[in-house]
Structure formats: C-alpha cells, structure tokens
Amino acid sequence: MLIRKAADLTYVDVTPKQVYLNRRRFLEAMGIVGATAIAGRRLFELAAPSETALAASKFSGLLKSPFSTTEKENSYQDVTHYNNFYEFGTGKEDPAKNAQKFDTSNWMVSVEGDVSKPRKFSMDEILKIAPLEERVYRHRCVEAWSIVVPWIGFSFSNLVNLVEPTQKATFVAFHSYYDSRQMPQGKWAGIEFPYVEGLRLDEAMNPLTLLGVGMYGESLPNQDGAPVRMVIPWKYGFKSIKSLVKIKFQSKMPPTTWNLAAPNEYGFYSNVNPNVDHPRWSQARERRLGEIFKRATLMFNGYGDQVASLYAGMDLKKYY
Ligand code: MTE
Question: Of all protein residues, whose CA lies closest to atom 3 belonging to ligand 1?
C-alpha cells in the first residue's frame, strides 16, 4: 500500500484513539490480535500494519523541542481521565465520559480583529503552518494539582506572523466552541459559555506559548480540547483554553471566563506564583498526579528564565 509522506497527510489521516480502540476490539474479536501483544503498547503499534505505517509517518517527523522538561511524563490514562472541561461537566471524570461523541469534523478557526490578513483556518491548514514539535511541559492547575504532558504543536507566534497584527493589536482574545446540544452538561457548570480567555500580545508571541494539536503522539482526545487548543505552561491551567474556534487581536484587554465568574479569585494574568495564594487555598505546593507527597510550586511553573522579563517592574501581587 502507498504510504504518503507527512506533508501529504491531512488531519483526518491522524486517526483518533477511539477509532483505533474500536478497530483493536474488532481485531481481537476476530482473534487477530493476541492479548500479550496488546499490553502496554502505544496505540499505533496496535493498528493493522498499513495504518501503523500511516500514523507513524504522521508523527515520526516530530521535532524534539529544547523547551521540553525531562521530568517524568504522566500516563495517558491520567491525562485523559482527570480533566477540567466544564462544557462537558464539572467532575474530573465527566469530560472523558461526556465528550466521546463531540463532533470536531470540518473544524474552522477564525482569526480576526486588528490584523492585516484576517482568515479562517481549517485543521489541515493549521497543521501546515509550522513543523510539528513534541513539547513536554509541566501543567499546573489553579486547584493545586499538576501533570507533565507531551504535547504536539508549534509556537503560536507562527500563526500570529501569518495574519500580521496591526499597531493597534496589543491583546489576543480566544474563544472556545460551545453548542448546548453537544454539551448539555454545560448548563450546570456555573460559568458562562463560550469559554473565553486572553493574553497580552507579547505573552502570545513568547515561544513557549503553544498551539496544541495533539499529545502522546496522537491527535488531541476530545476531553483534552480537540482538535486545537492553547497551552501556556507558565500560567495556571485555566488560561490554556480548549477547542478553539476564534482568535481575535484587539487593543483592549479581553474578558476571561474565570475572571468574570470570580474577579477576586482569578486575575487576567494568572501566572503560576507560589507567593500569591488563592483566597481559599495556598498556592505554595502542588500534588503531581500519581505522587503521594506534595511538591513545591515553582515561580512561573519553573519557566522563569523564558518569561520573567515579560513582567519586569510589575507588582505580581496586584496583577495576579
Ligand atoms: N477550556 C475550556 N473551553 N473549558 C474548560 O473548562 N478548563 C481549563 C483549561 N481549558 C477549561 C478549558 C482548566 S481549569 C484546566 S486546568 C485545563 O483546561 C485542563 O486541561 P486538561 O483537562 O487537558 O488537563
């Protein structure tokens, strides 16, 4: 069978995990996949050979990022079954259950506002903006738990450069997809949808700011923000908005979902800061999923060398 080169592949060629699992169950039922062959293997190793080659060709060209941590990655199971995605429910296991049928086909991301070249991107177009990298980042939730995730994506600045922000653009606003029919659990979440977030333009241009399209060598699972999300590793996890549909460049600081819900608890900046406690709990320590003892939380989640200069002269107790 013809194996296409990575450059020819489109987003639909990256078979989501669930499809592989269904295929595996089918092969198992047919007696084709031996039980011992399954244990602990990566997904693409479980697929039929032709699809294995296809998926591997998609991901084999991933660049290894110098920004990656060498800390131990959390398991795929942890990262896909302990989620915050309030559109699909507020329980940590709700998104894995409730997002299974989330339809992300024909996805478009609109980039608009103060830019010289506004445009809408399909997922195929997004994948071609820049070479895909694997970046292993620490992710620190404001709730004081943390994980280490091997994301796939590229610096968001690559997209920014394509649309050419005008002089007026000093902030970037992000909007998630929202459809109450596909996300009925959102009704009881207690926050407004669509979920909105924002960054200052210089924060958005920092090379650490990642446009994420996958993790663990695969496309993003629905519960982790399929098909495309932001990943901003020095900020609390709620800044890393999922299932992006709109990116708007503007001169005003954009409203953000958690700040709208509780302004005294969640600020616009939300940089990880062990010295500024949440009004209801300490931010000095965190629980890494899978570990028993809490560990110290690092300023800017350990990314200070790359980002501290963005906040030079700012009182981070005031601009939390
Ligand atoms: N994006 C949307 N659209 N809806 C959400 O509820 N939760 C945020 C963030 N992005 C959220 C979101 C929070 S609080 C966190 S900690 C991270 O997503 C969690 O990402 P993960 O589930 O992939 O670990």
Answer: 242
